[in-house]
């Protein structure tokens, strides 16, 4: 039986308000929503090649995906896991990748995902953190379990930014993520 994996490129059209495009964090002409979509599309292709069924919460910038409905999409399709891709911002000084999770039983998997992304990007691993350690007390996507929200790096940090948009590093990271998701 094929594994069913839901990929959620953060932000996008109707994320918070119907009909309004939410770019997420930005730096110059770079948008979190676009970077997340690029990553999800690469990861999707790798997972499909490995025989997985992959569902995306949104397919492009014009595809509406309210954040409140993303967990329901995972349930509707019977996903075995959900991976959300985001970029962080931290005043230009913060660096590294981190993964948010819910439930102590998901901590080890979140830590492994965080280390894989950090290693592939050549960044510091900020580790696995509970959703309460994020900027929000609860993350709507985490009403589906298991769900892991990956903050690839800090868009306002030059080193992180260069790593996140590097297609070679992105491919390497997505291959590692696919290894973990299909193990």
Q: How would you concisely characterize the structure shown here?
A:
With 183 residues, the protein is of the alpha/beta class.
Describe, in plain words, how this protein is organized in 3D:
With 183 residues, this protein is an alpha/beta fold. It has a single domain (4-182), classed as 3-Layer(aba) Sandwich (Aminopeptidase). It is 35% helix and 25% strand. The protein is built from five helices and ten strands; from the N terminus they run βββββαβαββαββαα. It has helices at 32-49, 70-76, 107-121, 158-165, 167-182, and strands spanning 4-9, 12-13, 21-22, 26-27, 30-31, 53-56, 81-88, 97-101, 125-130, 147-154. A six-stranded mixed β-sheet has the order 6-1-7-10-8-9, with helices on both faces. The radius of gyration is 15 Å and the shape is globular. The mean pLDDT is 95.
The tally of domains stands at 1
Q: Which structural class matches the secondary elements?
A: alpha/beta
CATH topology: Aminopeptidase
Most strands sheet: 6 strands, mixed
Side by side, the strands of the main sheet go 6-1-7-10-8-9
Helix content: 25-40%
Percent of residues in beta strands: 15-25%
CATH architecture: 3-Layer(aba) Sandwich
């Amino acid at each position: 039986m094929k594994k069913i994996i839901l990929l959620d490129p953060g932000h996008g059209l109707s994320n918070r308000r119907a009909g309004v495009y939410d770019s997420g964090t930005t730096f110059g002409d770079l948008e979190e929503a676009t970077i997340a979509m690029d990553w999800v599309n690469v990861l999707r292709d790798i997972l499909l090649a490995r025989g997985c069924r992959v569902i995306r919460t949104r397919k492009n910038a014009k595809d509406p995906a309210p954040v409140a409905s993303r967990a329901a999409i995972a349930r509707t399709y019977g996903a075995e896991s959900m991976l959300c891709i985001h970029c962080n911002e931290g005043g230009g000084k913060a660096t590294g990748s981190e993964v948010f999770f819910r439930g102590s039983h998901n901590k080890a998997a979140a830590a492994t995902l965080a280390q894989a992304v950090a290693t592939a990007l050549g960044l510091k691993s900020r580790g696995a953190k509970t959703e309460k350690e994020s900027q929000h007390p609860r993350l709507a996507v985490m009403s589906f379990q298991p769900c892991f929200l990956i903050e690839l790096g800090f868009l306002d940090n030059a080193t992180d930014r260069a790593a996140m948009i590097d297609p070679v590093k992105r491919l390497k990271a997505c291959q590692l993520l696919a290894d973990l998701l299909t193990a």
